[in-house]
Design goal:
Number of strands: 3
Distance between the termini: 66 Å
Strand content: 15-25%
Order of helices and strands: EHHEHE
Helix content: 40-55%
CATH class: Alpha Beta
Length: about 100
């Protein structure tokens, strides 16, 4: 007598991993920090070119705020704190904030 064995494939489920939420680093304009200093901070902390830093600075100057970079939360918070601390150390009220990207 022959026995037929029926093999069923195993169902494996892979957990769906969501991409981490991205955060924006925002430059907030003020009337006291010199433009050259703002560009220097953007170049030093965010590794921007002179032209890109100048464009971001002018956008913040004209519109009140400007998005500097969009990245992971921990990187965004670290960069914003580093840039704000650099300005504080030089005696300027320059401020960078972070907020989730929509």
């Amino acid at each position: 007598m022959s026995q037929d064995t029926i093999l069923k494939p195993k169902n494996t489920t892979k957990p769906k991993l969501d991409r981490p939420k991205l955060y924006k680093v925002i430059l907030v304009n003020d009337d006291y920090t010199p433009r050259e200093f703002v560009v220097m901070v953007l170049k030093a902390v965010f590794r921007m070119s002179e032209e890109a830093g100048y464009r971001v600075m002018l956008t913040a100057h004209r519109m009140g705020t400007s998005v500097v970079v969009v990245c992971a939360k921990d990187i965004a918070e670290t960069k914003a704190k580093e840039a704000t601390d650099l300005a504080k150390g030089a005696g300027f009220p320059l401020m960078f904030t972070t907020e989730p990207e929509e």
